[in-house]
Design a protein that fits this description.
Chain lengths: ~100, ~170
């Protein structure tokens, strides 16, 4: 059994790579995927701590996070499609007006 | 157990490499495929941590449904080739500085606060099974479960309203 610190360290590395993706990339879809990566890293930490404490509550929380991520992706991708229809571009830097 | 360590470090290498691939790829399809590899490796991590139900949900919901949605939108918009980026010159160094600070803080928190044993090596046979999670979901977490159903309905309605063609005459 690998100690729990290794799993949390891996979760942190994945989370920071996701945060860097949001900060560096300017493409809306890539930024969205990086957000998914961060959610996934948080899920990994949840499951690791659930294993360490021998409590299933962490796994139930992961289940809820998955449902929230699915809802977020549906709405976010709909937003991206709507923005692409008006601007013909999904570069975040181009989105500087609230009125389409 | 040497096998556990080999499995962990091999999978960790794949997970980090695919996350870097997501960050650095110039093609949105390749980024999505890298993210699918990452999700599958994390699902295997869930299996080693005694969470078979969550692992299978990860594969079906994340690697299946969510990434198919991503690929649909990428193909629909024809946005495979990403344009040249980095309009702001100071943005990339600032991002690395902020990421480094976050890494330092998180590493400090992990190495000072997360200590102690790795948990029991022998788990009960039903740990993480769908029956156990379902029992918890429908007793202790019944209210959040119902709220999630409302949230999914709201997301569905929102997605339809946002992508609907505006038809003033109708």
């Amino acid at each position: 059994m690998v100690p729990i610190q290794y799993y949390t360290t891996l979760a942190i590395i994945l989370f920071i790579l996701g945060a860097l993706g949001v900060l560096i990339r300017r493409n809306a879809i890539i930024m969205f995927m990086s957000i998914e990566l961060m959610l996934n890293a948080a899920n990994l930490a949840f499951v690791a701590f659930a294993r360490a404490r021998e409590a299933l509550d962490g796994q139930v929380f992961v289940f809820f996070i998955m449902a929230v991520a699915a809802a977020e992706v549906a709405v976010g991708l709909a937003l991206i499609v709507a923005i692409f229809r008006t601007k013909h571009n999904i570069d975040i830097d181009q989105m500087n007006s609230l009125q389409g | 157990m040497v096998g556990d360590w080999i499995l962990f470090f091999g999978l960790a290498l794949v997970a980090i490499a695919s996350a870097l691939g997501l960050l650095l790829s110039k093609n949105a399809i390749y980024a999505a495929l890298n993210l699918i590899i990452n999700f599958v490796t994390v699902a295997v991590f869930y299996l080693t941590l005694g969470a078979p139900f969550i692992a299978l949900s990860q594969v079906t919901v994340y690697a299946g449904a969510i990434m198919v949605l991503f690929l649909f939108v990428i193909m629909l918009l024809g946005a495979e080739q990403l344009g040249n980026e980095a309009a702001l010159p100071w943005q990339r160094p600032l991002a690395f500085i902020l990421g480094g600070i976050l890494l330092f803080e998180a590493a400090y928190a992990i190495f000072t606060r997360v200590t102690g044993a790795a948990g029991p090596t022998e788990l009960p046979a039903t740990y993480g099974s769908p029956a156990e999670i379902g029992a918890l979901l429908f007793s202790k977490y019944l209210l959040p479960f119902e709220v999630i159903s409302v949230l999914l309905l709201a997301a569905m309605v929102g997605a339809i309203v946002l992508t609907r063609k505006h038809n003033r005459a109708g």
